[in-house]
Write a structure and sequence with these properties.
The chain has five helices and seven strands; from the N terminus they run H-H-E-H-E-H-E-E-H-E-E-E. With 178 residues, the protein is of the alpha/beta class. The structure holds S-adenosylmethionine (SAM).
């Protein structure tokens, strides 16, 4: 059953990649520095056993740290198949496959109603596009942490500014709660 599920997910990802299914690209791949990943998860108050989802998970670094350090049940959504494969192989090599997974698909086509924490590193206009979906699906109390780009219309309960991540880049993290 698990194999069939994996096959169907991969097939969906392949269709997306080949353009048979249109996926709206919400942001290019630009990874969050590891130090900032940890700050995002800490700001989001992630606890062991909680469900977290990273929307557009890139190489899987947020999902991996959420599982490895915070012992959360972590899921990433990534339509780019190279990034999907890279992150799955890292998850396997770390033996985290029971609590971490990547879905090769479109952010718009998933259900986030069981998430305790959602992490996002997209763009302000993209956040605007996914906001109605999150407003429909997220349970009351679910936390959302967005890296660098706010959700217009939502009031952050906390904002964290990091002046220098060690490489001279500054970052802003926004914490919201539904
Ligand atoms: C700025 S990167 C962030 C990667 C990762 N979350 C991080 O912070 O390191 C955005 C990611 O979203 C993915 N992405 C963009 N639009 C998407 C969509 N509609 N469905 C799934 N993934 C998407 C991109 O391929 C890219 O890997």
């Amino acid at each position: 059953m698990r194999k069939l599920g994996t096959f169907l997910l991969c097939a969906a990802g392949l269709l997306a990649q080949e353009g048979k299914e249109t996926v709206e690209k919400l942001a290019p791949y630009y990874p969050t520095p590891e130090t900032i990943v940890d700050k995002m998860l800490r700001l989001g108050g992630l606890r062991a056993g909680e469900k977290m989802v990273d929307l557009g998970s890139g190489d899987g670094r947020i999902v991996i740290l959420a599982a490895k350090k915070y012992h959360a049940d972590a899921t990433g959504i990534e339509y780019d198949l190279d990034l999907f494969r890279k992150s799955v192989s890292k998850i396997r090599s770390l033996g985290l496959q029971k609590i971490a997974r990547i879905i090769p698909g479109d952010i718009f086509k998933q259900n986030y109603s069981s998430a305790d924490l959602v992490t996002v590193y997209l763009m302000t206009d993209s956040n605007e596009k996914i906001r109605p979906l999150l407003e429909r699906q997220l349970r009351k109390g679910t936390r959302v942490v967005s890296h660098d780009f706010e959700f217009r219309g939502w009031k952050p309960i906390k904002t964290e500014n990091i002046e220098d991540d060690g490489s001279g880049r500054s970052h802003t993290l926004f914490l919201y709660q539904r």
